[in-house]
Amino acid sequence: MKKIFLLATLILTMLFTGCGGEETNNQPAGEGDSADIKKIVIGLDDEYAPMGFKDEQNQIVGFDVDLAKEAAKHLGCEVEFKAIDWSSKEAELKSGRIDVIWNGLDITEERKQNMLFSEPYMDNRQIIFVRKNDDLGIMSESDLAGKAIGTQSGGTAEEYFNDNPQVRDSLRELKTYGDYVAAFMDLENGRLDAVVCDEIVGRYYMSKHNETLDAIDATVGPVSQFGIAFAKENTALRDKVQEAFNAIVADGSAAKISEQWFGKDLLLKK
User: Fold this and answer.
1) DSSP 8-state assignment for residue 19
2) Which stretch of DSSP H or E encloses residue 250?
3) Are 69 and 40 in contact (CB under 8 A)?
4) Each residue of 237-263: pLDDT tens digit?
5) H helices then E strands: how many in the chain?
6) What angle do CA 221, 54, 119 make, to 5 degrees?
7) Among 35, 232, 234, 248, which residue carries the largest CB count within 10 Å?
8) Is 226 helix (H, G, I), strand (E, B) or coil?
């Protein structure tokens, strides 16, 4: 009987600890130090240059990707990047398929209802992009009235238009896309009059298409800030990642990453 009891205890221990004794990061408890974290799965839109996107070798690269990799080094854990449906990002976190969203995500009051955020790390604003040498007279948000406008589904610009029906109703059309690349392609092909999107993302795309596009230096909606998002109850993982991020800011490695991507340090300072 004693042998049977010991065997049963061993089997139960294996079932509860799992192979290799790894913990899942989406558990709400998550006590212990950073050594408990074996791997962090980061969800992202993999066509969201320069924050996270696939390069010519089909590898996921980007500014936020490099920040996440550097933070993972500090934590001493593996990091995996997983492409997700951006319009379902809250559900991806809640289901546990991903642990973190680190991909140029604006902190908004609406998103705070469903996600837990880090401290903001970069300012962001929505601006207008048009075809070069067009004659539509778009110079400000008010000039979007009567125009066909494109933006990303589930993005900050769409949320702004939906939260301000008077502005949205003034548009001739608001067309949403799975990613900004498709929106800009429709703009270049004349199917849109303008695209409204994150300035950093739009200017990066425009730098590759400066013969066809112009940026209008006019803010649409309020200026927002980027943050790292976690499942609502996962304070333990949030605190560990925040600590790691603070460390790479303090040692200057985060600033170097920003300088590599943007030519200067754009990270917020405390």
Assistant:
1) G
2) helix 235-250
3) no
4) 999 999 999 999 999 999 999 999 998
5) 10, 12
6) 45
7) 234
8) strand
Q: Cα separation of 40 and 98, whole Å?
A: 8
d(CA 149, CA 210): 20
8 A C-beta contact, residue 91 and residue 71 = no
231, 94 Cβ separation under 8 angstroms: yes
CA distance 15 to 205: 49
Amino acid in position 90: E
Question: Which one has a higher pLDDT value, 21 or 47?
Answer: 47
Confidence at residue 4, expressed as pLDDT on a 0 to 100 scale: 45
Is the model's pTM score more than 0.85?
A: no
Alpha carbons 210 and 131: distance in angstroms, whole number:
10
Q: Which residues contact 16 (CB under 8 A, 6 or more apart)?
A: none
How far apart are the C-alpha atoms of 267 and 270, rounded to whole Å?
Answer: 10
In whole angstroms, how far apart are CA 229 and each of 32, 68, 239?
A: 21, 12, 11
